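Notes from the 1:1 (GR / supervisor)

We went over the backlog. Supervisor wanted to see one worked example end to end before approving the batch request, so GR pasted a single chain during the call. The sequence is below; no edits were made to it. Supervisor asked that the structure be written out right there so they could see what the output format looks like.
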Amino acid sequence: MVIKLGGFAFTGEMDEQLIGEYGKVLNEIHSRGHGVAVVTGGGRRARSYIEAARRLGGTETVCDQIGILVSKINALTLISSIGDAASPIVPNTLREAVYIFQAGKIAVSGGLSPAQSTNAVAALIAEAVKADVLIHLTDVEGVYDRDPKRFPDARKMDHVSIGELRSLISPTGIRAGGYTLMDPTALGVIERSKLRVRVASGLDPWNVKRIIQGEQVGTSIQVEA
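Structure output shown during the call:
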């Protein structure tokens, strides 16, 4: 499996308890023989640095590099929680991430390339290792018909097609730090490889275990055959 752990888990004030629980969950899953790769987002800290750099005249390339570096710091923090089951090396390329995964270690990645979201990185790794499931963890319960943080009456959807998801996601361009739930590159990879994807709340790390046990948690993204 490949897990995209959103930047919500790496706030300005680090939630050590939450990261510690992820270490326990990932160790348990890995000990049961599951291959695991994780991709960490940059989160609020990355956006803060990016916005500052942009105001100071930094190019979008510089802003992308900042986002990648912060996401890698988050990856190292998670590796510290996992311990020996994880590779101590944060991959710099897709090939390195796949190699670590195939070597039997938990591969924990951040961003890889400029103009590429960590959502896309997770989808590409899932495609490369032929993952059984890509679990996208965010700070809400799944995919909603409207932004649940702005609209209290937003309805969570148990299932959503790629086409419906595209229509729900507001375009944010390709500026660093501007990606929403999924970006077009991630959706394209999911669609072409017909990846099984589930979007769920990452505020409860044990949702990962529930998903692989077959429980109906969050929202499943359906790709037409």
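Supervisor's comment: The chain is about 40% helix and 15% strand.
Batch request approved.
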